[in-house]
Write a structure and sequence with these properties.
Four copies of one chain form a homotetramer. Chain A has helices spanning about 10, 25-35, 40-55, 75-85, 95-105, 120-125, 140-155, 160-170, 180-185, 200-215, 225-240, 250-270, 295-300, 320-335; strands at about 60-65, 90-95, 110-115, 130, 135, 160, 190, 225, 245-250, 275-280, 305-315, 345, 350. In chain A, helix 2 packs across helix 3 (about 40-55). Chain A has a single domain (about 10-335), classed as Deoxyhypusine Synthase (3-Layer(aba) Sandwich). In chain A, strand 10 (about 275-280), helix 13 and strand 11 form a beta-alpha-beta unit. Chain A has about 350 residues and is α/β, with parallel strands linked by helices. Chain A is built from 14 helices and 13 strands.
Chain lengths: ~350, ~350, ~350, ~350
């Protein structure tokens, strides 16, 4: 046996401590207690401590956060925008549904409490769309589609990264203190949406595209989202960081894209290390073989996460997990903002930070 | 369309409210916020409000709590014993592993923080047993087995319900303020363990059984656990209650048994209604067809839960879910105990409450 | 680096082979194809090959099979009884629900195709019980309860292991070629049900218990199920085997009991090794910390599965997984029975095999 | 009670039939047996019968198939290409990883059998990438990246839908009879990849993008993937179909996009009905609120699936589920091809079918 093998005493070192919630306990205290328990509670506390280690890096260190799942329907919008405003996130990668629904809410429209066992055919006849146990107002969705269409017509043609486009949408949300896009715009946090075509925004853009074709306009007059330029941009961000941390809230494209950003930086600029810290909250599993549930260890084999990285995964649904992690972070830091990074772009080139 | 069909306005009535955790938030406040969000967070808050409705019933109303899964390893022992001490539970149905490990800890032994990716063969060589991400000390387990054996020898032969037997074990735990068995003994809360043979306790009893056979002792001299008598007892408890509520922490035999208790009461005494309130915390699912994950609606078809009952199910792992629910209950009630029920037994007959 | 570390070529050795199902494929061929694919398909084929290795042991080697979940409702009864009849199982450990529903079907009663989204209150008013997407006839259940009660009255008082009792029930099922209990009785395969009190059978016994109490009969006149004697019996079976293999169809008490059988044998007779082969089919997961989903590696730390054992776990629901595994076994062996073990009992002692 | 309420006899109509696998059973026979059983086995047989109903529509009816998850690593590539070749699929929507890995295999490179508990740091040092229990050769990946880069350089600048681009890649795969892209190219089946930027292909394109920028080339010289044009195209396909059916193998962007295609057609051309048939294979769940696991009923509230549609969902991992469904389809149809649709494009306009 070599020195690497732990002794019996090494292994029986740290007793599990019973959690005590009998006396008014704050989120921060609860998460501290979780650190000495087991199973997913301990995992949540590990996510918290990995996040805090990222936050302790100031300056050139970038925190990339992936958002997926129905976070706006879940009432998590303010929490995410608070994290952005506090400088606890440097780059956001998300789905079209999340940015669209954030924008919809910034216009004053709402999600409503619904029933997962609803009569969906009745809902359809009412133009009510269901998201598990919430409802949205299809009429207001259409109004929002038209509104986004008008914004794009004002802009006219041109070739935009999704960051540029979402920053424009964000500029219309700055009066809503709880908007994700609004906070990102104000704070200078880039928001990427690689699959934006697959969303109500993409549908709106397709309508504009058809109109242009019908009117015989040249391609160049059509508003164009260039997702390959997104790749070029995010590669620059990663390359110009002293290190990176990945926060995956859910899986899907945002998780994959945050991982691929490392490979992009490596291919474009060379010698890129994987993320130094990473944690994921997901209900998905590795056993099905898909990317969303794959372990962060698996990402290490690809070099997307550093061999020496600290990482973990918690299997607690986001509507419960995120308030616990974000609440504890804010409680411990007493709202003290992190400086974070701020990006300036000249066209699609990152000028300074 | 009849009046039963909701209007569009009925459905778009209650907006989802964004959760705010930016300013020190207690568990009680968090759970209150969860009520206006979605998905599993809302489910957790529904579990809480169902539990509170049970607790508001005083007197003859009985709350039956099923415990399964590795709750002691998860550090949840104190929370359960606090609930018992506060009168927030009237009857416990559990697994052999939980009562055994509670007893083990009451003797001063511990569970230790471990690694789910341990070298299990090394652990075995060290006589360390792993429970996911915790370790227990097999040496201390064996010492505990011998200790339980000695208790049974002191008792001698006889036929016991598991409640009687576990009350005897509980009487040895009263000096540990965090013991589940100790709290139940002190408080007069019956603890049933229908599958007790399937546990270290059952192994200890089998050893005694063999010794008796080897020594040629008559059966009557052998300590006997009569689980059918358990059925008889729990049927009486249900029958003599003005109503019942079911709290299923996990699934398994404890869930099924709490449901069957209603059928038992009906078969033995007639005219028994199902549980009036019920909630379950589980990661299991209905789609696999098993009892543990079956919906509480399914239990209504069997009459085990009342047609009019309020019930829900939350899919959040117990190490996270129980502290949130129990913490909120204790915070809101400020530790004010519920009177609860107290049982006196004459043999296996329930005398008075 | 030591010799233990594989080289790159070692790792890139065996290509995944694409599955071809374009030309009429049998279950056996499909499972053979699965061996060269990935994820749960590969796992299923590993379960099959572990099972076949167990079956290749003749003579004193014992295969213990745990049954849990709603297997009778799933239409899997004939498959299990075929396995028993072919000598592919030596010992069965199961739940009360499975043996009860097997008995119910042996009386000519049926499960019916139902809808998981049924109106459970309507079902209850019809005395129809729902098991996910199947229905059972509560009237016929009650008739069956009364019938079991009468069998027990014929037997009179006495102390029985669940094996003895279930063998009696099985003797009433031998005319049904598809009955699990009938096949086990005919073949001499012991069936254990550690949590039998927690079932319709337990409810029937509780009724008898109450009647005896009401009539003032002495305890000794009451039919008694002695689950500790079960422990004593199964410990003998394990002790007198040259080796053991564990097949866990689902988790729950049957899984735990088959593992504990090893510890029982060790405590009663000493020097007992863990199971040499083991596989489990389950939708449960290790991450929740419970026994049902715990890895078979975890069982190795406890010594319940041998350090050198071949073991695996497949996450495919049993209604799909069992037909694939059992079908492939039967196809490959062309129905050729295995000798298997046959047990003779003198009281609760295993006489010969 | 109205006539809508079923009677007791209505409900207890169709007995569950026990499955018999004792005599050589083909996939087709097994799936037929599953129809009379329960739980996920019955669900799989329902998926099959919904698929067959789609296939019975000839001519203008379009079957859209979403592919997600690590299907190539799972060895499912040949099955998908066989379905395409047989005309059992009219439109494919997929992820970048699937088309990239299909292309990688078409070049003669392989996935290898691996271990989910590998030492990922060792793998990384060997340039081996892990996908759960399979390995791929990072060297060959890089070679493939370079190769794709060269293809794009040959093509030069221009604005392509992902369908056009993937058809070009597919033209390089036609010598591999098992290639998904090759079969789609040969058969004229359009393949869409809305999140193509988020893949090795996207990384390759970003490299070309940077090179063009560094060389000061105008944007117009850069190869551009226009995913909004994808939207325009797929809307035309849906609009010009007499009806549509959706086959979701996994969830993710492909599922959402196939649903959104209906909304796109409605927004661009009006009066579009939802999919008439739909089934999904997924291990994800509705309870987490995300799109991947959302029920197909939920999609009906959005009008993406027709109110009258036949739909179901099976929770069996794809490596097992797809061979069963595809195998049964091919066995029953004896390889007889369906005519299916064939698309001709003039630029981005669908000319004829």
């Amino acid at each position: 046996m070599t020195d690497d093998v732990p002794t019996r005493d090494d292994l029986l070192m740290t007793p599990i401590r019973m959690l005590d919630v009998s006396d008014k306990v704050t989120i921060g205290q609860l998460m501290e207690g979780f650190a000495n328990t087991s199973f997913q509670a301990r995992r949540l506390s590990q996510c918290l401590s990995i996040y805090e280690r990222m936050l302790d890096h100031e300056g050139e260190f970038s925190i990339l956060m992936g958002l997926s799942g129905a976070m706006v329907a879940a009432g998590l919008r303010k929490i995410v925008s608070d994290l952005i405003r506090s400088g606890y996130v440097d780059v956001v990668v998300t789905t079209g549904a999340i940015v669209y629904q954030d924008f919809y809410q910034a216009r004053g429209y709402r999600h409503y409490r619904g029933d997962p066992n609803s009569d969906d055919v009745l809902l359809h006849s009412y133009m009510i769309d269901r998201i598990y146990d919430t409802y949205v107002d299809e009429d207001k969705f259409r109004e929002t589609d038209v509104f986004i269409g008008r914004i794009m017509e004002e802009i006219g043609g041109g070739r935009y990264s999704t960051r540029e486009f979402l920053s424009i949408l964000g500029s219309r949300c700055i009066n809503d203190p709880d908007s994700i896009l609004g906070a990102a715009h104000s704070r200078g946090v880039p928001v990427y949406c690689p699959a934006i075509a697959d969303s109500s925004i993409g549908i709106g853009l397709a309508t504009a595209y058809k109109r242009a074709r019908d009117e015989g306009k040249p391609s160049s007059d059509v508003f164009l989202l260039d997702t390959i330029r997104d790749n070029y941009e995010i590669a620059q961000i990663v390359h110009m960081s002293s290190g990176t941390g990945a926060v995956y809230l859910g899986g899907g494209v945002p998780k994959n894209y945050i991982n691929d950003a490392v490979v992009m930086a490596d291919m474009l600029y060379g010698e890129q290390d994987g993320h130094e810290y990473a944690f994921q909250i997901t209900m998905d599993r590795a056993e099905w073989g898909g990317l969303s549930g794959s372990t962060l260890g698996e990402a290490q084999s690809w070099g997307k996460i550093l061999a020496e990285a600290t990482h973990t995964m918690a299997h607690v649904e986001l509507s419960v997990a995120l308030p616990l992690i974000a609440g504890a972070v804010m409680e411990r830091r007493e709202g003290k903002p992190r400086k974070g990074r701020r990006y300036t772009w000249d066209g699609d080139s990152l000028l300074s930070i």
